[in-house]
Structures are given as C-alpha cells and as structure tokens.
Design goal:
- There is one protein chain.
- The protein is an all-alpha fold.
- It has one domain.
- It has three helices and no strands.
- Helix 1 runs antiparallel to helix 2 and helix 1 packs parallel to helix 3.
- The radius of gyration is 15 Å and the shape is elongated.
- 9% of the residues are buried.
C-alpha cells in the first residue's frame, strides 16, 4: 500500500510529464514563429497546471489531465504537420 507522500509524488510525476510536454511544444512553436495566441494559450495552460495541489488530485483527475493533454497534442500535431515542423523531439525520450 502506498503512503500519502508516495501517492502525491506519483501524481506529481504524471502531471509533470504532461507539463513538460506542453512546455516543450510551447518553446518549439515560439521558436518557429507560430501564431502568438497559440503560444500564449499554452503558457496559460502551463501556469494552471503548475498550481495543482497534488495531494488533492484523484486518479480520475489525473486521467482527465492525461486525456486532455493527449487530445491537445493530437490537435497540435496537425499544426506541426501543416507547418512542416516535423517531430517535437529529435531523439526518443522515455
């Protein structure tokens, strides 16, 4: 059985993974000169995610955050393809 601290740390890791991906996409789109409104919205999402109280987050909250992040990345993938940006990462990350 996991302790409260361990559960909070685990939840933090899962949200941090989503957060890092959003930050990486935001930096890449800024660098590529994408529409400033898109970059601004990603930065706003970054700010919101950084305010999460990991001890209050439930497993269903985490699932919704991860599903939403995946949906956002699918939509941004269309932008990457349309602008010919290729892959976000040059190497494989785990």
């Amino acid at each position: 059985m996991r302790g409260a601290r361990e559960i909070g740390d685990f939840r933090r890791l899962r949200v941090d993974s989503c957060l890092r991906l959003i930050q990486d996409v935001s930096r890449r789109l800024s660098k590529e000169g994408s529409h400033p409104r898109i970059v601004e919205q990603l930065r706003h999402l970054d700010e919101i995610l950084s305010l999460i109280d990991f001890h209050a987050v439930t497993d269903s909250d985490l699932e919704r955050i991860e599903i939403s992040t995946n949906q956002l990345m699918r939509e941004i993938g269309v932008l990457f393809n349309h602008q010919g940006l290729g892959s976000l990462y040059e190497d494989t990350r785990h």
